[in-house]
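User: quick one, fold this
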Amino acid sequence: MTGSAAALDLLDAVVDRHGPDVLGDAVALEGALRMATAPPPEAQLTAMVGAAATGASARMRAARAEGAGPDAVIAAGTEVAGD
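Assistant:
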């Protein structure tokens, strides 16, 4: 499993446990990710929490619902930031 796929799986697990609103709340998301059985590396956690404040999660979930692969989903989340 790629790092991107693992990150998406972790986000899915966080949403299952805490509800979809956690993705738009950077503080709640950080806490949920840190409490995960296998939390992401610090740099990835920081990026995921930063994205929560930009609305990236909605774009990422829409891309995933359309069948996009992990890299395309990550790209959808970062396109506004210009990354």
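User: anything notable?
Assistant: The two ends are 23 Å apart (CA to CA).
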